[in-house]
Specification:
single chain; 340 residues; T-fold; 20 strands; globular; disordered N terminus
Length: 340
């Protein structure tokens, strides 16, 4: 019986000594955060990175799925709802916008991205900084599946939220890191920083370049140490990876990861990892979100769902270790033959 918690999904490769790099690390969102700036003075770089890390800490406090904060307070209110007596809750403008966006993304993902299934995530023991190798009671799983918590259960008008389904428990763990990337990129640009790489536990967004070359990142091999492949990340692009090696436990030789299929109430088990690259106005958010439903869809349906979500650059590693790529991704990868 083995328990593991891995957070470094993507390895940042910053090569070359003597370059004007400012790097600052912290631990937020339950993972390692690293901000790297190129070509800025020490004072400007430190000021800008401190602003970003302060924003990260604020988001962490607001959106934490199992510690006191705005989201936990909202979940407590939703749990009091009923079909005959819906709850009414006032949101901050930022949280209202985030939940509205998450609703829209959930619809595009045909419900496989479902931040409303926090009760299932908690039932499996992943609502904790440390968790045990144990299986939930099958009847409890079925109870939450039959309750069908979904983002469509939330009605948001302005800053007011109402819901009739007490089974909804919001967990924005599959959204928050990507949202934070977009916020950080906007902050750095406002501060006049044009070249940076922001990494939140393997969810990464790039600004500009590192000198005269693009930022280079490596995609972590899901079963071995080191990078499976490398690629150049261009200005405004974000990369997101979901893997069964991030938060998981093993019991009787079977791996159970934190990525829960809302249709079955059980961890998805047809995929080892999915990596997507996005370049759009909200590249960080979409790259973080999209990797989850593609992971859950698995080899049988991930290509169709990627098209529905507007993803043209992605790679899936199936449970048997076989690798599939969309054409836009295949041409960018530089394979590491030592780990493939």
């Amino acid at each position: 019986m083995r328990l593991a918690f891995a957070v470094l999904l993507v390895l940042i490769l910053l090569v070359g000594c003597g370059e004007k790099l400012h790097k600052q690390q912290s631990y937020v969102f339950g993972t390692l955060v690293e901000i790297t700036l190129y070509g800025e003075s020490e004072d400007k770089a430190r000021h800008a990175t401190n602003l970003v890390l302060k924003e990260f800490d604020s988001l962490h406090q607001t959106l934490h799925a199992w510690q006191p904060g705005a989201l936990e307070q909202l979940n407590a209110q939703i749990a009091q709802a009923s079909a005959t007596q819906p709850i009414q809750a006032r949101l901050t403008p930022e949280l209202a916008a985030m939940l509205t966006d998450a609703q829209q993304l959930s619809a595009r993902a045909e419900g496989l991205f479902n931040p409303a299934i926090g009760n299932l995530v908690r039932l499996w023991g992943f609502h904790s900084d440390t968790f045990e190798s144990r299986l939930p009671d099958a009847a409890e799983i079925e109870k939450w599946v039959k309750a069908k918590p979904a983002m469509s259960d939330l009605r948001i008008e302005g800053v007011m939220l109402s819901s009739r389904n007490p089974a909804v428990r919001l967990d924005l763990g599959g959204y928050a890191k990507g949202y934070a990337l977009d916020q950080a990129a906007a902050t750095l640009r406002r501060e006049g920083v044009g070249n940076a790489l922001i990494n939140i536990g393997g969810n990464i967004i790039a600004l500009g370049k590192k000198g005269n070359q693009a930022w280079k990142v490596g995609i972590q091999h899901p079963r071995r140490a080191g990078a499976l492949a490398m690629l150049a990340l261009h200005d405004g692009e974000a990369i997101g990876t979901s893997g069964d090696y991030q938060r998981f436990f093993e019991l009787d030789g079977k791996r159970y990861c934190h990525l829960i299929d809302p249709r079955s109430g059980r961890p998805a088990d047809q995929t080892q990892a999915v990596t997507v690259i996005v370049q759009s106005e909200h590249a960080g958010t979409l790259s973080d979100v999209a990797s989850k439903p593609l992971f859950i869809a698995g080899p049988a349906d991930w290509r169709r769902l990627a098209g529905r979500m507007g993803i043209s650059q992605a790679m899936l590693i199936a449970a048997d270790g076989s690798i599939e790529t969309l054409p836009g991704m295949a041409q960018r990868l530089q394979w590491n033959t030592d780990t493939k």
